[in-house]
Amino acid sequence: MASRRQLKKELNYICGELFADCVVLKMCDTCNEDLLNQTMLEIINLRSEYVSRVSHTEKGSVKKFYAKLREEFSAKAEAISQKIVEA
Fold first, then answer.
1. How many CA atoms lie within 13 A of 51 on its CB side?
2. Which one, 16, 37, 60, 62, has least CB within 10 Å?
3. SS3 call for 10
């Protein structure tokens, strides 16, 4: 596993890209602004939640903790990506 610092950078990067997609899409006239605003708030909360979880690692089964964290983050990021496509 890479360092916590690198993992946090990856989380920030992915959330930043999702947020940037929302900002660009928001400039279109045909988008659903309410859905995009809600999605942008979800992205901010997602980033905050997962970066704080990385900072406070559970003792004991560290590999399982990080594997579960990555799996959950990927699933939530994919769901948010689908919301952006729908908007």
1. 16
2. 60
3. helix
